[in-house]
Specification:
elongated; alpha/beta; 2 domains; 203 residues
Length: 203
């Protein structure tokens, strides 16, 4: 059993994410852009893929509802990596420092299976992680208690010695309910202070 470990979320903790990063390239008018990401390709609709629903089911339904926007809906599938413009400042450096310190690293991410297959190979930082649970692959999403139970079992960790990091309050509460200490991520400086205070990193 692994006595000490750090478990990261991916989106908005390690890597920035927003549908607007892609669609701002395709929709020049700001009002129309905002309408599109709040009425057509919305985060709530996207989260179906995080939960395990295949794009082959999702896309035809949405295009039938919004036929005039079919090319933009196709762009969502073809160019999803463009919704992830790069790392959150400072976060990947903390991953590198933890890895250098010998701290076992894991992740639990709400991420669509197909999109993860396209994103994971572009980011060598994930080679530092011993295992990553992807919601779309497991068809379990945070903060479902089952995903934390799966993590504890599959990672082989002692939950009492682990720290989970997520930007979402409900996901943090879910980890704490499973017996895993958790940190609500706001920025890398705050996380660094938490890691030092818990002796994961030297001060």
């Amino acid at each position: 059993m692994i006595r000490q470990a750090v478990i990261f979320d991916v989106g908005r903790v390690l890597f920035d994410w927003d549908l607007r990063y892609l669609f701002a390239k395709l929709i020049a008018d700001k009002d129309r852009l905002e309408w599109f990401v709040t009425h057509v390709v919305t985060p709530q609709w996207h989260f179906q893929h995080d939960a395990g629903r295949p794009l082959a089911d999702m896309l035809p339904e949405l295009k039938a509802e919004f036929p005039d926007h079919a090319p933009l809906i196709d762009a969502y599938a073809a160019r999803f990596n463009e919704t992830i413009p790069g790392p959150v400042p400072g976060s990947l450096e903390l991953v590198e420092r933890l890895d250098a310190a010998g701290v076992p690293l894991f992740a639990i991410t709400n991420f669509g299976h197909e999109f993860w297959e396209g994103f994971r190979p572009t980011q060598p930082v994930f080679d530092r992680f011993q295992d990553i649970i992807v919601s779309g692959t497991e068809k379990l999403m945070k903060p479902d208690p089952a995903i934390y139970a799966l993590a504890i079992e599959r990672f082989g960790i002692d939950p009492a010695g682990a720290l989970f990091i997520d930007d979402n309050a409900a996901n943090v509460a879910g980890a704490e309910a499973a017996g895993i200490a958790a940190h609500r991520f706001e920025d890398a400086a705050g996380l660094e202070a938490e890691l030092v205070s818990r002796d994961y990193l030297p001060g």
